[in-house]
Amino acid sequence: MKKVLAILCALTLLFALCACGESAAPAASSDSAAPAEAAPAAASSEAAHIGVCQLVQHPALDKATEGFVTALKDKFGDQVVVDIQNASGDSATCATIVNTFVSDEVDLIMANATPALQAAQAATNQIPILGTSITDYGVALGLDDFNGKTTGINVSGSSDLAPMDGQAEVLHELFPDAATVGILYCSAEANSKYQVEAITPLLEGMGYTVNAYTFADSNDVAAVTATACDENDVLYIPTDNTAANCAEAINNVALPAGKPIICGEENLCAGCGVATLSISYFDIGYEAGLMAYEILVNGADVSSMEIEYAVEITKEYNAANCEALNITVPEGYVAIG
Question: Which one of 38, 58, 59, 206 is at 20 to 30 Å from 135 when CA atoms are compared?
């Protein structure tokens, strides 16, 4: 009898445990489903997680990233985690970085420079992507019908394009008597090629003979610059990440040769140029940060957001190089600090 009672007690306890397990399962399932239905990251109690992929470390891109992070801190306060990764100029490393962001399920990716943007767009069509320091999004993403929005693609951002006609006018204002202009750029950068194609007819319309010179990477920058200096009166370099990273090498060739360079942006000009019509990279980075807030907090659709452009554009000059080349800068130009 005692054995029978013991068996009955054991069975009763077993049924009770099974019943408890069945009642707990729906509660666990409900909790795990909650994040999929939750509000945007910054509106919840969890901090927004943003991954930043910067192509290479140089002053222009550094300032864009700084502006982006500053805007995030201004808008999110402590409710944001920013993971900044630098690809050291390597496109393959950009792909590795953004694929890690995708695996980590970040809330948003910021891609600083065209190769970083292309890698991010190839890695995900779900996570919102914001670019900055991108000259032309249509060119960068291969969009034939680009009209200021990347409709249907999870990408938007801010551009570093200064008006090409204004840059041509800066060159003409300082060097009206020059006959030949050599344009120097990296053949691997699609946006550099875009700028060259845009400014060439403008310069030719001013009476210049324009010659284009390309380098593949940093290894042949000095040699190509020397050839361009030998064959032209003045040089022009568009916004170009490889050139910006090699500004010192370019300057070491062009300055002793007595050849002035007009540049597409401030930081490149500070390294090897005499003058530029430039935007603020901090400002375009900051604008991208504001766009991130609109996406993550207010639910803006990244694919319907207009590409943002710099509002302020400034004529600037490199005082040291101008003095070394005996160039008198007209009124209206600001010395690069």
Answer: 206
Looking only at the bridges linking them, the beta strands covering 234-237 and 275-278 are: unpaired
Which residues touch 287 (CB under 8 Å, ≥6 apart)?
A: 67, 71, 132, 158, 308
48: β partners: 80
Residue pLDDT, tens place only, 180-204: 999 999 999 989 999 999 999 999 9
Q: Could you tell me whether strands 48-54 and 108-112 are parallel, antiparallel, or unpaired per DSSP bridges?
A: parallel
The verdict on pTM exceeding 0.90 is no
Which pLDDT score is estimated for 144?
A: 86
Instruction: Report CA 239 to chain centroid distance, whole Å.
Output: 12
Determine the 3-state secondary structure of 334 from DSSP: strand
Asked if residue 214 lies in contact with residue 185, where contact means CB atoms within 8 angstroms, the answer is: yes
DSSP 193: H
Q: List the structure tokens of 179.
A: 């006959």
For residue 249, the SS3 value is helix
Give residue-wise pLDDT tens across range 122-158: 999 999 999 999 999 999 999 988 889 998 899 999 9
Residue 53 forms beta bridges with which residues? Answer: 85, 111
Residue numbers of the chain with a pLDDT score lower than 70: 1-45
Rounded CA-CA distance 272/269 in Å is: 5
Which class for 206: exposed (0-12), middle (13-18), buried (19 or more C-beta within 10 A)?
middle
pLDDT of residue 41: 52
